[in-house]
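Input record, target 12 of the design panel.
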């Protein structure tokens, strides 16, 4: 079995608390698993659209803001 390495990402405590409440009753077992899911979705979505994932456009920023707004973070 391959050993996975992890890193720490800091977010404001109120956002963490709101997110924990948001994922209650879902299949996500932790805040970390939810954030990992979101990042994978965003990155795979960009790859599927054929965009260079290292180059951010105004459209990319707007898309991310729209997603966060729909989730209640903005």
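The sequence produced for target 12 reads:
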């Amino acid at each position: 079995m391959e050993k996975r390495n992890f890193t720490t990402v800091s977010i404001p405590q109120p956002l963490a608390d709101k997110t924990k409440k948001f994922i209650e009753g879902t299949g996500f077992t932790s805040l970390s698993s939810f954030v990992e899911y979101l990042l994978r979705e965003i990155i795979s979505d960009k790859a599927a659209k054929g965009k260079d994932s290292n180059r951010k456009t105004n459209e990319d920023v707007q898309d991310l803001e729209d997603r966060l707004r729909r989730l209640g973070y903005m």
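Residues 30-74 form one domain.
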